[in-house]
């Protein structure tokens, strides 16, 4: 075996030749546009005597070597086509195909046109024409890449994620090639231990006392992670209430005891949906409800005084119920941070005997004495879950962590961080961390004997599949780990700080233009925000509406809501920028626009001005009736789908 090492600085041609040589074919084979995929191999097998193996080989399922060649060929094709889905700064060399549309975040085509294209491909599959056809494959990939959203583009500002980190992309590819299911040590020895090790490392980043404290699992999304946090808390409450002498970490499944679930009105919708799915009553405001919505202050942070009142009321009516409190670190719309220490103080006062303060010397002694069997906690009690799906990544910022996640190590029982948002891991990559060890396993284990052999195999103690709800598991931990290893904590910190800086720079530039009215963005705020919410004001409203309090008249409110929807649509359809529009729960503000700054981009002043010009141009356009953009908007702010008659920036 050659000891030579390829490096990422090696010229591309050499790299390709080296790779091709390893797979026993020349660069020309690998890049020849005419050859159908795996064609040479299939020709050989077609001439061989027919048996089942050869039949498989004929359709391209020819074992290791053919797969390796196909991968190489496909990588070659995809590499050249990626220019169609990345923005202008990427892939301008090395023979990557480029088109003018690649400069836009989206080439908008109406759904009916995409459907028609798909019909064509489906017909090719059904007729058998597609199998092994390189032309068709290339054509399909081109369409897919051309008409998909380019999240890496500087003006993709639509969602709380952006373009993905190339290191994470590679990890994703490795996961697919390895195809190990990260559930048991026997199925994925390296990846299972890697996940455990990463969880332990993150737990110590939080400040938990590993290895006695700190547990966790990677989850397919923050909504799912929030669900697992809820089922874990429910398990603890049930254990405390019903079987004080049993181990808290012992498996059991029952669901008859209710608890209160508190979240702010601006908390993520998954908290309420999860509650409903678990059989809790989600009818806030009604006596029967298990879900209580807590009002927020002007900046979108849970109001601790309102929480105090609601908890008092809840305890009066349901003195035996425990409570799960969802504290949001980075709300979905305003990217606000609930005040964790104040919230915890309210809870500790309401449940004086029961506060689980992991920082207390007494608890530390207990943990050291026995991490698994805790003394019975007097019940009822409370569980603090920090939903940091958006803002949890400020964990890596020395500058912002003290303001954004103050008290996390002390007050959070569980914590979610979505690496696929601010850290730009490829979708999806969410991490749930739980302070007390063993609870995830206890709450979710089903001990399927065909899979988990812990009675017979000592390695099985490292299995993680029973800590969650899925059976087969993709290793999202690898994506996170490779990025963390390569970028370092400092790299992550720099990235989240850049997002906050981008948002601030854009908000400040907007504040200087009279056509924009910022929604709850105090320019003197000390904590980081990564969303910028605003209204576009038509020229005849700029005098009368100078702040949010001025939006009183119903017609003005309706008009602003309608403009937000139409402006957003006009930007989308023209492909100039992708924004989103929102409302703010708990307020009667009309629909406004949201810019979400979660991409990899660092904005120069010129780009900010370009973005604002694009919005302003479309804003003027959006308020003129009869323009294509207005086809999709109506005065009440509703939106109807654009059909083939709607404007679009490309013709298929
Ligand atoms: C605060 C918050 N929590 C949870 C989620 C859900 O995360 P996911 O989209 O990964 O399910 C989101 C998504 O935007 C969010 O903003």
Stated plainly, the CATH topology of the largest domain is called Aspartate Aminotransferase, domain 2
- Tally of helical segments: 20
Shape: globular
Per DSSP E runs of 2 or more residues, the count of β-strands stands at 11
Describe this structure in words.
The chain has 652 residues and is of the alpha/beta class. The protein folds into three domains: 12-103 and 110-146, no CATH class; 181-439, Aspartate Aminotransferase, domain 2 (3-Layer(aba) Sandwich); 493-632, Aspartate Aminotransferase, domain 1, CATH 3.90.1150.170. It is 40% helix and 9% strand. The strands form two sheets. Strands 1-7-6-5-4-2-3 form a seven-stranded mixed sheet, sandwiched between helices. It is globular. The two termini are 50 Å apart. The model is unreliable at 1-12, 18-36, 88-93, 355-359, 369-378 and 627-648 (pLDDT under 50). Pyridoxal-5'-phosphate is lined by residues 160, 221-223, 268, 270, 328, 330-332, 387, 389-390, 418, 428, 430. Residues 160, 221-223, 268, 270, 328, 330-332, 387, 389-390, 418, 428, 430 line the site of pyridoxal-5'-phosphate.
In short:
This protein is of the alpha/beta class and 652 residues long.
Question: How do the helices and strands line up, and which of them pair or pack?
Answer:
Elements lengths: L11 H11 L4 H5 L7 H9 L4 H7 L5 H18 L29 H16 L7 H13 L19 H13 L10 H18 L6 E7 L2 H21 L17 E5 L4 H9 L13 E4 L9 H14 L5 E6 L11 H11 L10 H9 L12 E7 L12 H4 L3 H4 L2 E5 L11 E7 L2 H6 L31 H36 L4 E3 L12 E6 L17 H21 L5 E3 L9 E5 L8 H19 L29
Parallel strand pairs: 2-3, 2-4, 4-5, 5-6
Antiparallel strand pairs: 1-7, 6-7, 8-9, 9-11, 10-11
Helix pairs in contact: 3-4, 8-18, 10-11, 12-13, 18-20, 19-20
The structure holds pyridoxal-5'-phosphate.
